[in-house]
Amino acid sequence: MPLNIAVRGGEIDAMALLLTGGGTVGGDGDVVFHGAPAHSSGAVRLTGDGTGTAWLEVGLASVEARIERVLVVASTEKRAMRDVAGLSVEAFAPDGTSVARYDVTDAAGETAMVLAELYRRAGGWKFRAVGQGYANGLAGLATDHGVDVAEPTAPVQPVEPVVPVQAVAPMRPVPMSPPVAPGPPAGQQVLGGAPGFKVPGPPMPTPAPVPLPPPSAAPAPLPPPVTPTPWPAPPVVPVAPAPYAPPPVVPAPVALWSYGPVFEPLSWTGRDNDVITVEGLPPGPVVVQLDIDGDGYTGLTVLDRRNKEADNLVNSTEDDFWGRVLAQVPQKGPLRLKLEAEGPWRVEVSPLATARHLTEDEVEYRGPDVLLHTGGAADLTVHYRGDENLIVNIYELAGHHDPTSLPDDENVLNESGKRRETVPLPEGPLVVQFEMADGPWRAGVRRLGW
């Protein structure tokens, strides 16, 4: 019997993403939505009851072994999630008993949100609320999970109208000769080769008899064969191979951010403990994203030139850890990261310039993160729903002209447990580092009125 998941909220679209161990879909077939309401395995189906509730039926025993997580997603086309009344997700056991419910009461300006997820653990499945919103909508959510978002296509040109067949006067019978070739009966036309679909039409003319030569006449001699003149082959022009050109460097968004090295993001995947060597990067601060699907301790540490632990970036006992942290590429040599993990993981190293910007719309985040503030003096608003410490630091870059390092940080928030906080931010550019956060949180900036 399937697990039934209700997604409520009126004018919303519900869907499910079936993710592999790398946190992405295996293809478009792993997306269940109104246009493809059933997964090919039959394990996930999307239905509706006509009352504004969408239902996802998940046969957990039928989910393919390659699938590690099933995300429950809601999106809107014209409204922000905060304007959706009664937005919630609730899971029911096969006997109809409610086993989990999440009422979304703190949504903001995002138009797409991961409401909850089912994930494998210890040979079984677990359900948990997520509440991770995406201000860039369903396209951003889909892209983050490996869905190929197609570009808009050009509008279809109107088709010329079909001219109706005019009625004709009744046919008069005419003498018929034996047919010389198969074809439709006289007085009928077959449209499009479809048998039995006929319209009235003018009578077929009787073909004129073709005269045959007398039997005694000798056949006309055949003309001599013509030998075709061979077509000259085009000349072969040797083409020198083009010199190798390295891939272009991604330009930094100078108008908004021009601090730190710029390069194509790099990623690695693996399982359990490992050491990752990042070579070829210019020195300076970078963002390291770590995503682990597993229980137990998670640690991420920078190794120095003596291969000793130098800077601890992650120290967590949270299940299924996810977060972004700051790391420093050394002046000489590669960036080396010691990873301690239990389960499959993914690591991505990207430029500081690609970090998300704080906006006036509060956006949903999860775990430690690195954000940028490029506006004037403002107030930072934070709604934290974790249980452990929340530590926030800022790096003021005004007057700091060495892009290969960061200035000393200033701690602006160090609290514990669920809370709402507002702290002042000086004028940007700033790096706002949520150094420690063990659960979901929201953040935005509020401009000053003077």
Explain how this protein is built.
The protein is an all-beta fold and 450 residues long. The chain folds into three domains: 3-144, Lipoxygenase-1; 266-353, Jelly Rolls (Sandwich), CATH 2.60.120.380; 356-447, Sandwich (Jelly Rolls), CATH 2.60.120.380. It has one helix and 29 strands. The strands form seven sheets. It has a five-stranded antiparallel sheet, with no helix packed on it. It has a five-stranded antiparallel sheet with strand order 3-2-6-9-10. Strand 4 (44-48) and strand 5 (53-58) form a beta hairpin. The chain is globular and about 60 Å long. The relative contact order is 0.10. Mean pLDDT is 79; it is low at 152-156, 158-220 and 231-256.
What are the salient characteristics of this protein?
Jelly Rolls, 3 domains, 450 residues, 1 helix, mainly beta, Lipoxygenase-1, 40% strand, five-stranded antiparallel beta sheet, 29 strands, globular
What topology does this entry show?
Blueprint: E1 3-8, E2 13-19, E3 31-32, E4 44-48, E5 53-58, E6 69-75, E7 88-92, E8 98-103, E9 112-121, E10 124-134, H1 137-144, E11 188-190, E12 198-200, E13 266-271, E14 274-278, E15 284-292, E16 298-303, E17 309-316, E18 322-329, E19 335-340, E20 344-351, E21 356-357, E22 363-366, E23 369-373, E24 378-384, E25 389-396, E26 410-416, E27 419-425, E28 430-436, E29 440-447
Parallel strand pairs: 21-23
Antiparallel strand pairs: 1-5, 1-7, 2-3, 2-6, 4-5, 6-9, 7-8, 9-10, 11-12, 13-20, 14-19, 15-18, 15-20, 16-17, 16-19, 22-29, 23-28, 24-27, 24-29, 25-26, 25-28
